[in-house]
Amino acid sequence: MKQFLFLVILSILVFDEMCIKGATGDQYDTIVSAFTSKAKATLKNEKNCLEPYFQQNKMVWCSEIPPLFSLCTPDDFSSLSNTMNLLIQANVNTSLDQLLDGNDIRGVLTNRKAVDELCEEIKFKLELTASSIFYPPEIDSVYHEWKNTYITQYYLLKVVVNLPILKENHELFYKRFEHYILSVVNENLETYQLYSNRFSDIYRSHEYQRIDGYLEHFVQIQLTILERLRKARDVLVDYYKRRINWAKFLMGKQVQI
Predict the structure, then answer these.
(1) Does 256 map to a domain?
(2) Cα-to-chain-centroid distance, residue 249
């Protein structure tokens, strides 16, 4: 139990440290804005010798870049946060601690604590990834080296050609995260709430012999929820890291996109 809580807290602190360190720099919006300005300057300066693509297509593609640096829209963020709150509330509304008198039978109390910790961790990470936050220090030196450099049409064309891949990957990150969260709500939350209410009824009525009939199934539900929450958390961490690569890619670095 103590080791688990330590790992959860450490995970939050490490992620938090990554973001706090980045708070001394600029936001991802700064990089996107600089890239757009550079693209306009390049196409204007080289208007007499434009690549065929830029002769036929205006810079509407630039509007597709900023959304990549936020996992979801503000409305989606609000909806997902409310969903997490529903699960947190269902997890709090259980009388298991009192009912079991602190005895961690089949790990049910450890699991309940783990669900609560993971929900809070996910809400924290979602807030960070749902906005175009300050980029981390590893980007700062790249940005300051790049911000005064001229970019070529070849470089712009490389970004444009790969933009559909970036958009597809961004969409996959969001869909994976949404899938794991909604699967908890759609497949597990109602049953989880039902069992929580039954435990409260048992505690109030002192019919303690009834608990054995519910506990085993409840633990299985807990484990399913934990598995899906961990996968949702991992998606947020992966997106945070990939977003760093996308910023580097805009600045001409060879990275996985």
Answers:
(1) no
(2) 21
d(CA 92, CA 141): 45
Q: Which long-range contacts (CB under 8 A, 24 or more apart) does 223-230 make?
A: 223/111, 224/187, 224/188, 225/87, 225/115, 225/184, 225/188, 225/192, 226/111, 226/114, 226/115, 226/118, 228/180, 228/181, 228/183, 228/184, 228/188, 229/115, 229/118, 229/119, 229/122, 229/180, 229/184, 230/118
Please indicate, yes or no, if residue 42 is contained in any of the structural domains.
Answer: yes
Checking if the pLDDT of 149 tops 60, the result is yes
CA distance 130 to 239: 10
Whole-angstrom distance, CA of residue 198 vs CA of residue 127: 33
Domain count, the chain: 1
- CA torsion sign, 187 to 189 to 194 to 200? positive
* Torsion angles phi and psi, residue 179, rounded to 5: -60, -50
Tell me if 155 sits within 8 A of 200, measured CB to CB.
Answer: no
Domain extent for 166? 2-65+72-250
Residue 44 belongs to a domain: yes
List C-alpha distances in Å: 186 to 2, 93, 164, 193, 225: 31, 19, 31, 12, 11
Report d(CA 182, CA 84) in Å as an integer. Answer: 10
pLDDT single digits (tens) 237-248: 999 999 999 999
Give 119's pLDDT tier (boundaries 50, 70, 90).
very high
* Structural contact between residues 71 and 122, judged by C-beta atoms closer than 8 angstroms: no
Distances (CA, A) of 63 to 43, 68, 151, 257: 16, 10, 18, 19
Alpha carbon distance 233, 117 (integer Å): 11
